[in-house]
Write a structure and sequence with these properties.
mainly alpha
Protein backbone atom coordinates (compact mmCIF):
# COMPACT_ATOMS: atom_id res chain seq x y z
CA UNK A 1 0.00 0.00 0.00
CA UNK A 2 2.76 2.42 0.91
CA UNK A 3 4.67 1.72 -2.29
CA UNK A 4 1.50 2.23 -4.31
CA UNK A 5 0.79 5.56 -2.64
CA UNK A 6 4.38 6.72 -3.14
CA UNK A 7 4.11 5.80 -6.82
CA UNK A 8 0.85 7.74 -7.10
CA UNK A 9 2.61 10.73 -5.54
CA UNK A 10 5.13 10.67 -8.40
CA UNK A 11 8.06 8.69 -7.04
CA UNK A 12 9.62 6.36 -9.61
CA UNK A 13 12.83 5.06 -7.99
CA UNK A 14 11.91 1.76 -6.33
CA UNK A 15 14.98 1.88 -4.06
CA UNK A 16 14.11 5.37 -2.78
CA UNK A 17 10.50 4.27 -2.29
CA UNK A 18 11.63 1.22 -0.32
CA UNK A 19 13.92 3.34 1.85
CA UNK A 20 11.13 5.81 2.64
CA UNK A 21 8.72 2.95 3.37
CA UNK A 22 11.25 1.45 5.76
CA UNK A 23 11.77 4.80 7.50
CA UNK A 24 8.02 5.26 7.96
CA UNK A 25 7.64 1.70 9.24
CA UNK A 26 10.48 2.26 11.73
CA UNK A 27 8.79 5.38 13.10
CA UNK A 28 5.46 3.55 13.48
CA UNK A 29 7.11 0.56 15.13
CA UNK A 30 9.12 2.80 17.49
CA UNK A 31 5.88 4.33 18.74
CA UNK A 32 4.45 0.84 19.28
CA UNK A 33 7.57 -0.32 21.13
CA UNK A 34 7.44 2.63 23.51
CA UNK A 35 3.75 1.97 24.17
CA UNK A 36 4.30 -1.71 24.97
CA UNK A 37 7.38 -1.08 27.15
CA UNK A 38 5.56 1.59 29.17
CA UNK A 39 2.60 -0.79 29.60
CA UNK A 40 5.02 -3.54 30.73
CA UNK A 41 3.58 -5.86 28.08
CA UNK A 42 6.90 -7.11 26.67
CA UNK A 43 8.11 -10.68 27.06
CA UNK A 44 11.84 -9.95 26.85
CA UNK A 45 13.14 -13.46 25.97
CA UNK A 46 10.75 -13.63 22.98
CA UNK A 47 11.61 -10.05 22.12
CA UNK A 48 15.33 -10.86 21.82
CA UNK A 49 14.63 -13.58 19.25
CA UNK A 50 12.36 -11.24 17.26
CA UNK A 51 14.95 -8.46 17.29
CA UNK A 52 17.65 -10.81 15.99
CA UNK A 53 15.39 -12.06 13.20
CA UNK A 54 14.29 -8.56 12.27
CA UNK A 55 17.85 -7.27 12.06
CA UNK A 56 18.97 -10.21 9.92
CA UNK A 57 15.93 -9.97 7.65
CA UNK A 58 16.29 -6.20 7.29
CA UNK A 59 19.95 -6.43 6.39
CA UNK A 60 19.51 -9.26 3.87
CA UNK A 61 16.35 -7.69 2.44
CA UNK A 62 18.04 -4.34 1.84
CA UNK A 63 21.15 -6.00 0.44
CA UNK A 64 19.24 -8.03 -2.14
CA UNK A 65 16.63 -5.37 -2.90
CA UNK A 66 19.36 -3.09 -4.24
CA UNK A 67 20.40 -5.80 -6.69
CA UNK A 68 16.88 -6.65 -7.89
CA UNK A 69 15.50 -5.42 -11.21
CA UNK A 70 13.04 -2.58 -10.38
CA UNK A 71 10.58 -3.68 -13.09
CA UNK A 72 10.43 -7.22 -11.74
CA UNK A 73 10.01 -5.95 -8.17
CA UNK A 74 7.14 -3.71 -9.30
CA UNK A 75 5.42 -6.66 -11.03
CA UNK A 76 5.81 -8.86 -7.94
CA UNK A 77 4.43 -6.12 -5.65
CA UNK A 78 1.43 -5.56 -7.95
CA UNK A 79 0.73 -9.31 -8.22
CA UNK A 80 0.86 -9.78 -4.45
CA UNK A 81 -1.44 -6.79 -3.96
CA UNK A 82 -3.97 -8.08 -6.48
CA UNK A 83 -3.86 -11.59 -5.00
CA UNK A 84 -4.38 -10.29 -1.45
CA UNK A 85 -7.21 -8.03 -2.56
CA UNK A 86 -8.93 -10.92 -4.34
CA UNK A 87 -8.48 -13.19 -1.32
CA UNK A 88 -9.99 -10.69 1.10
CA UNK A 89 -12.79 -9.82 -1.31
CA UNK A 90 -13.77 -13.49 -1.53
CA UNK A 91 -13.28 -14.49 2.14
CA UNK A 92 -14.44 -11.47 4.16
CA UNK A 93 -18.18 -11.34 4.67
Amino acid sequence: MTLGMLAMMGMRDINAMGALRTLLAAAINAAAVVTFVVAKAVLWPHCAVMVAGSLAGGWFGAHYAQKADPRKVRVVVICIGVAMSAYFFVTVR
